[in-house]
Amino acid sequence: MSKPAVKPTASAPLKIAASPINTKTNRAKKAGAKAKVSKAPIKNRASAEIKKTLHPRNAHLHGYDFPALINALPKLKTFVRPTAYGALSIDFADHQAVKMLNTALLKHHYGIEFWDIPAGALCPPIPGRVDYLHYVADLLAEGDKSCAMDNVRVLDIGTGANGIYPILGSQVYGWQFVATDINVDSLSNVQRIIELNPPLQGRLHLRLQSNEKAVFKGIIQTEERFELTLCNPPFHASMAEANEGAKRKVNNLQLNRRSAVKTATTLNFGGQAAELWCQGGERQFLATMISESQAFAEQCLWFTSLVSKKENLKPCYQALAQLKVDTVKTIEMQQGNKITRVLAWSFQSVDKRKIWRSERLSR
């Protein structure tokens, strides 16, 4: 079995209220690579440059090594076949094939021996998910080589049944996570993944959000601090809209593969209701998140979220300007034909962020 991209920190189980871990296996220089981001003031922000390839530290930068992945997980072989160009691949319209690929990737690159999701749950593309983490690691470090990445505490909003951000963040950087969701069954599945993977134990803590209309409220506790918050908001405003999006995705796969793909309304990457849609869709979810973030301005160093729809950025910028947020940055990323954005904001000034890092993240 291949080792994780960064060897997990060997430490005793930690309780969520405990101080950040003191181990320092992951060096800040790995997190210090400069990401091209928009740094202009809120009222005069230029569009960020789109990254045509994955982050330089992304283990999947050069594609999938299918022979190595099959060696790690022999069951994957059933789903692998040559493309019209002779390269090995899978049918990305086949949910089971995508799930098996993820299982192999997590085992081969990140040392996760067991990973599974319920039928119909969202099966995330791992290269894009870990890209998000690499870019926010750069954002957090701000070029500070003394920043200890493995002291970082992260809040994951809407972790789903796959728990992918806490899994990857823990294994790549040694981060500690609080992962939330409104679905009890989703959290139960993530708990099972934790229990069957010793490296995750003591690093991932789960919290149920009992208020479907809230994001941070009821989750962040008094005096609790986080260096980062992460979120992949529901894209759609209804299940009907989600199904239409699934049709477009399958049709695109059909065109790209130049071979027959069964076009159906099922989602090839899966997704349960809470993972795919909410009242008001992505725009409303982001508006709620931004509004609530002000109450926790002193408890979170950076708030971040993926933004799938470009047209949702402008209302976000307007809302952040009204709250007088100190710093807003936008990172645009591209994986294949899909372009997404990381929107990040901090109520802390540059000097305050430096003090925060020196007090909580320095060696």
From TrEMBL:
Q: What is its main location?
A: cytoplasm
Reactions catalysed, semicolon-separated, are: adenosine(1618) in 23S rRNA + S-adenosyl-L-methionine = N(6)-methyladenosine(1618) in 23S rRNA + S-adenosyl-L-homocysteine + H(+)
Positions of region (Disordered) = 17-37
Record's subcellular location: Cytoplasm
Keyword entries, A-Z: Cytoplasm, Methyltransferase, rRNA processing, S-adenosyl-L-methionine, Transferase
Q: What is its EC number?
A: 2.1.1.181
Any matching Pfam family: Methyltransf_10
Q: What class of enzyme is it?
A: transferase
Q: Which ranges are annotated Basic residues under compositional bias? A: 26-37
Report the superkingdom from the record.
Bacteria
Q: Which family does it belong to?
A: Belongs to the methyltransferase superfamily. METTL16/RlmF family.
Biological role: Specifically methylates the adenine in position 1618 of 23S rRNA.
Would you tell me the protein name for this molecule? Ribosomal RNA large subunit methyltransferase F
Q: Which organism is it from?
A: Shewanella morhuae
**Gene encoding this polypeptide?**
rlmF
